[in-house]
Amino acid sequence: MYTVIDPDIAEYLSHWMRHRDPLLDEMESYARENDFPIIGPLAGAYLYQLACMSNAKRVFELGSGYGYSAYYFLKAVGPTGMVHCTELSEKNIDLARDFLTRADLWDRVTFHQEDALSALERIGGSWDVIFNDIHKHQYPASIELAYHHLRPGGLFISDNVLWSGRVLDGKDDGSPDTAAIKEFTRPKGSSRLFFQYGTVLPSPCGARPRGSFVRSTGETLSFYSQIAFGNDILAAYVWLHSSS
Question: Which candidate in 70, 131, 188, 222 could, as Cys together with 239 as Cys, close a disulfide (CB 3.0–4.6 Å)?
């Protein structure tokens, strides 16, 4: 497993989390006990910050599991916002209903039990944030779709783009998922629409090491930043709308 941050540093940063909803502990315990991949508390807090800083009120999740990441987005968009989720598993949707009802958030979320990309194409509209956590072989197909359904200045956030190091030369496992991640991140893929410049900042993930890819669309001004989460990288590609 490729590691980008010292486990002791990850443990140290985990103590920064304060005033947490006990429900999140329950959701994270479920992930550990069932080997279910979630973004974890520190990455969740970062998603919350991104949504708040962009004044997001409309969030669309491509792949939602049992609502862990949706919890953070729902907190960020507030009582006047909305989050649309996609999940094929009825069991996961039932779990999400239970968790988010107990968090008093269920009335602001809509779950679509269908393929995530098909759901976004069918529903359409312009979104402030699109969070991408679908099967990795679908990642290349998400690029154009997300781009055309984001408002200027909106964020496109994609999970686990360094694929635990399997994108590196000598570590490629030859799987379709790895090939898809490489296609998704190479210049002729996502970056031709979403980024120009880059910086790197380290930060760990929570319940299970994951990574993310953040992008936004706009017109003229852009910057690029990367944040390491556990064994992967959260790369923030942000195009800011220019009023000039």
Answer: 222
